[in-house]
Structure formats: structure tokens, C-alpha cells
Amino acid sequence: MVASEKKSSREPIVDCDVHVTDTPQAIAPYCEMPWRKSLEILGKAPQRYLDIPGWSPSMRALAPIPGGQPPRSVHNVKEMREELDMIGVDHGILLPDHLLFFATLPNTEYATALSHAYNRWLVAEWLQPGNKLWAAIMACPQNPQDSAKEIERYANTPGVKAVYLPTAGVNPLWGHRNYDPILAAAEAADLPVILHSVTVISSAFPCQLDQFENQFGRAVLGHAFAMMANLTSMMHTGVPARYPKLKIVFTEAGVSWAPFLMWRMDKYHQEWRRTVPFLEERPSDYMKRQMWFATQPIEEPDLPEHLVEAINHFDGMDRTLFASDWPHHDFDHPRALLKLPLTPEQRQKIMWKNAAELFKLPMTAGKLLEGHSA
Amino acid sequence: MSEQKSSDGFLVGPVSDLPPGTHKIVRLRNMEIGVYNVDGAYYALHNMCPHQYGPLCKGPVGGEMRCNQKTGWRFDWARDGEILTCPWHGLEFDLTTGKCLAPKKYQVRQFPVSVVNGEIRIHADSGRAPATA
Predict the structure, then answer these.
(1) CA distance A313 to A287
(2) Most CB contacts within 10 A, which of A171, A323, A363, B133?
(3) Residue A349 and residue A336: Cα distance in Å, rounded?
(4) Cβ contacts (< 8 Å) between B65 and chain A: which residues?
């Protein structure tokens, strides 16, 4: 059953959510002054996993509970390549660790400098010809005008395949018209945007998770509600209608919320069309044309066919992308999807073809796609 | 009210009963049908919303709020008098085509209307083309 063991003959795997460890000390040399000084100070201070004030403010305020697996971090290309090879992933789209909390950083000038530094670091340290690691450069919701220029700057950089939209605690939500320059730049650059959240306690909707007294309750809701709120926000200002070539990817919330939200939006669209007249088709029509959904953390119903059914509800065989979330605690091994009753063609689409087409990846392990240049 | 069947469709009444911008609901066999005068063109629609079967023709007639590239992405009120809104759930229908503005899968049944010798008649068997006075 484990196809990944036979490397030479097996199908390739594209993973649209892989995390690089982004410490302040690693990124400091790439940061403009005076903020480089701030990163150097942060780099010398004691650091907790995904919980550094001024860098990754999770605001958890929870006592440690003994037990559990130790956190995993990947600090360089060599480690990343070895570990992805170990789980059978060929291509990975790189997203940050600590800077998943980026949108909650309140100082605009600092955030702007940090977004520049992260992008410089990511491109310089992680992209190497042939390593099959691809960058999602970080957008800066705190400074949309500058962020648009940053996207233009990297539009033709080899290896840059997407724009990461920091989603945890973003306020206002993606879809607010303040962010239009970022979306316009991503559309013009033909770079898909990737929304990625993280469990954060924030006063920004829908992250007011402080009343949940443990990580179970917060984790169940955090990512999923963030994706639903941001997708709804983008729909309610007509983002897919106003940017008809923009491609939008939703990650780390599984996929079964997508049909629920799709049906719910269609239901209210029929009554409130006149309030969103830019949506000349149903929300589901835009979802099925311009939005993609990453598998991790894949739902694990007792009957795997129920998940296949949920995927089919949103025409998901063309819209679902495999994601591992490596190296995080709730990562999915590619073989998790072997349990799903899919046809070989459907499996190919979800495990690599949909992503290869979306991100325009040169598939050296698989078939070289038409019209692509590396 | 019940209408008299003639050899040439069902009589709605004289055109003077239905000036532009007005409508009336008539009963034809077991159906209620709304007959509308939109700027001199007559349209007849089944008084039943295809959504949850509400009394569509008892809803208000207005225009279409639009916002697209042609309007410069600004809100624009268009086609006043041509859009019917169901009183139950607010679904909007194009009076001239019977099509829902959203979702497009909903289509209200339409009936041809003719005007002969100053009398408006509905034809319940075939066709959809509106009549002009």
C-alpha cells in the first residue's frame, strides 16, 4: 500500500504547506536598520517555540501540561530536504513558523522591515536550483502599498511561486479594501495567494479564543474559523469578481468546512444579492473557479468515503491540494491520503497535478508540464 | 379573480386596466398568474417562486442594483420597473425573462401575452415572447 517507498517509479508529491524555522537571529542579517537591532536583541533573549513576544506573540497564557511530542523545527535546506524525502514529499511550498503570527505585530514600520527581511532571507537561504523548494513571499497587511511593491519586486524571481497572506489575527480581515493593492499585485504577477493562520489569542475576529481554557478548544476552532472568516470577507467585498484572475489558497483547516461555507454563502447570496451586486454569480461559482483548499489537517472520518463525498461537494478533485504542514505537530504524512477511496486520476490531481498547475512547478519527478519554464 | 376562457387565450381585461408600471394577479385554472405592464410590454408570470413556492407576484417591483467593471465598480441602480422581488425571501427575478438574478438556476414559469382589440389575453400552452401594445 505504501507507494512512497518505491522512489523511482512512484508518482510525485507536491506539498503546498511546509514550514521553515524563522528565528530573529537567522533573519537579523537581512533586516534594515534600525530594526536589525531589534532582531538582534530578540535573538539573544530566551525563546519559546512559536511564542516570542515581538516576533510570534501567541498570547496563549497557558500552563504547560506535561507529556506530548516534542516540537519539530527545520532550520536549513539540508534538513528540509532530508525530512521531506523521509516522508516522500518531492516539492514543497515554504511558509514560515514564527511569522505565522506576523499580522498581529502592531508596529507598521517594524512589520514592513520584517517582511522585507523575511523575503530576502527566504529567497537567499532556501531557494536553490533543483532543490524543489518554492517560496511564498510574505505580504505585509500592515502596509499594503509597500507590500504591493514587494510583490512586484519578486514577481519574476526564480523559485517564487506564491504570496503568503498572514491570516492569524489579521485585522481587518483579508478582503477589506485596504488590501486591494496586495491582491492587485498578486494577480498582476500571476502569483496565487496562500492564506495561512495559526492558533492565536487576539481581540481580532475570529481569534477571541481566550475563553477556551486549553489548546484543544482553541485548535479545533482557530484555523477553521480563520479560513471561514477570511473567505467570507473576501467574498463579501467581491474579491474574486474584482480580481478575476486571482487564485486563492486556503490552508491548514482541512477541507470539509468548504462545502458548508459554500452552501451557506449561496443561501444568503440569493436573499442579499443586491448588497453584493459585484457577485454576478453565486459564491460557489467563484469558489469552484478561483479557490483551492489544502488537505491538512485531513479529516479522518470512520468511513473515508465520507470525506471523498465532502470533497466532491465543492468540485474538490480539481480544487484540493495535498499539504503535510511538515514539521508541525499535526502534520499529515502523504500516506494518510491512501485511505481515501480515490481513482488513480483523482489521487494524481490531489497529490501533485492540481498544485503543479496552480503554482506552475517544473515537475522533474513527474511529467514536465506544458508551457513551463523553471 | 377568475377569468373567462375564450378561443384565443384567457381574457385578463382591457388594456386600460393595466397602465405601464402596474400589474394584476389573475386565476387561470388552478394557477395564479401575475400580469405586468413594463413600459408598454406585457409579461405574465406564475405567481409561485421557484425557491420555496412563495407568492412571488405579491412582491415589490423595482430595479437591479449593479456593480461591475461597466459601472466602474460603483453601485448603480438600473432597469427600474423590471425586477420583481419575492415577498418571502427576497429573491429577485427579471420580469422580462423570468430568470432569477441569483441563483440563475431558478426560472419562473412565463406565459405569452397578446393584445387584440384592446384586450389583454394570456396563453397558457406555449411560447414566452411578450406582447407589445
Answers:
(1) 11
(2) A323
(3) 16
(4) 274-275, 277
